[in-house]
Amino acid sequence: MVCFKSVVRVAGALILLTCFSSGRSASAESGFPFGMTLDATRQPGSKRVPDLDIGENGEVVLELWCKGGKGQFSVAGNTVIFVAGPMEDRACPPARAQLDDELVAALSETTTWTREGDVVSFIGSKTLRFRLNTN
């Protein structure tokens, strides 16, 4: 069953993408970073910290606390739109699955981004801080 809210988000993202004649997907040209890790500590019993790998056309591979999946970023200036794709469940413990779902929801509500040095902040209903992967 497709969630109406998701359909509206995707439709809105497509409309915004069309409206930005100079808009583009995440790219080096826009100064948008490509690999980053959530500025957070590991969860008990896990070695993972959420990580985003963003391709030149805005496609993103998400590795979360437990789940993983793909999505799409679109950037125009300091405006950002994130649309999540399906996430793999991976038999996650309920607490980690909930953290993953909350993180994807917060990324989906992101409207702007800023970068200060190696720290990227996505701003929406929550501010999410990521550190650039410099290795």
Q: Classify the helix fraction into a percent range.
A: 10-25%
- Structural classification: alpha+beta
Could you give the count of β-strands?
A: 9
pLDDT < 50 stretches: 1-25
Strand fraction equals 35-45%
The number of helical elements comes to 2
Shape: globular
Head-to-tail CA distance between termini:
41 Å
Task: Write a structural description.
The chain has 135 residues and is an alpha+beta fold. It contains 2 helices and 9 strands, in the order αββββββαβββ. Strand 8 and strand 9 form a beta hairpin.
Question: Key features?
Answer:
9-stranded antiparallel beta sheet; 2 helices; single chain; 135 residues; alpha+beta
Describe how the helices and strands are arranged.
Blueprint: H1 4-19, E1 24-25, E2 35-38, E3 51-54, E4 59-63, E5 68-76, E6 79-88, H2 94-108, E7 112-116, E8 119-123, E9 127-132
Antiparallel strand pairs: 1-5, 2-3, 2-9, 3-4, 4-5, 5-6, 7-8, 8-9
What does this entry show, briefly?
This protein has helices at 4-19, 94-108, and strands at residues 24-25, 35-38, 51-54, 59-63, 68-76, 79-88, 112-116, 119-123, 127-132. The protein has 135 residues and is α+β, with helices and mostly antiparallel strands.
